[in-house]
Amino acid sequence: MPLNKLPQLYMESCVHCILHDCGSFPEVEGQVEMLEMVRKAQCADDEPGPSTRAAGGVTLEQFLFSGKLPLRTLEIKASFDRMRRYLGDRLSAMKNLEELRLTVLPDTVEDLPAEKAPYWIITHDRLPSLVWQLFANTNGYELVLPALERYELEIANDVDLNVLMLLGSQLVELRVWIYFERALEQTLTVSFPKLKKFLMRRSLWQNHSPEPNTRVDDLSAERFVRNAPLLEDIYLISNSITFRLFRAICLFGADTLCRLT
Q: Where on the tree of life does the source sit, at the highest rank (predicted)?
């Protein structure tokens, strides 16, 4: 529906926007009810006499992606498929955007299955910061973000892992939550030549007392630290990750390191 003049004037100064998708209710009944409300809002008026709807004008969605807002941060909370359909390839219209936060909620009743959903390419020429928060898995996506320096993600599947491996060379700050063992092993093979701040944690159920490092474990940890020569701030939230990396950090990262937690 078209914006009226007053909210549009307020939005023209907006630098931070949060979109919480009502269609991503956790209860199926709530999703169905919301879809019915949308259907009624989009259908033609059937009351007698002149329509009460405002004709013409710019809708909220059109205004958001018009490129006229001084928007610096955008946060979207929705299921992955609904997020993909809403944001699509329009992110680049927000030329001043400095941070994108995507909170993935469980699938809704109208979402396409992961194996049928289109591949989502998220692209922006100047976006420096991206944050994922997962309450459900992502589907197929790719990041084309040449200016990205700060990346926060949860590696819950191979798509998340592969994206990180492709971005390693450009990251200055990385905050990563590991959900499965192979994600840790493959992350340690990535080169991070610009990385200065690094936080890694594992899911709580994996936070048990680790086995002693093998020689292979030590070598992979050494390679990781050597391939991140600018590390200044390291925060490890896991017994096993700490035991895995601590020796290598002390031996090969001490010259640049300012804080180890």
A: Eukaryota
Compute the distance between CA of residue 162 and CA of residue 179 in angstroms, rounded to an integer.
14
Cβ atoms of 87 and 104 within 8 Å: the answer is: no
Task: Answer for the pair 198, 168: CB distance below 8 angstroms, yes or no.
Answer: no
Residues 6+ away with beta carbon under 8 Å from 80: 104, 107, 111, 117, 136, 137, 138, 139
Q: How far apart are CA 124 and CA 171, in angstroms?
A: 16
What are the start-end ranges of the E strands in the chain? 16-20, 73-79, 99-105, 120-123, 129-134, 141-144, 150-155, 173-178, 197-202, 233-237, 259-260
Nearest to 83 by CA among 44, 139, 7: 139
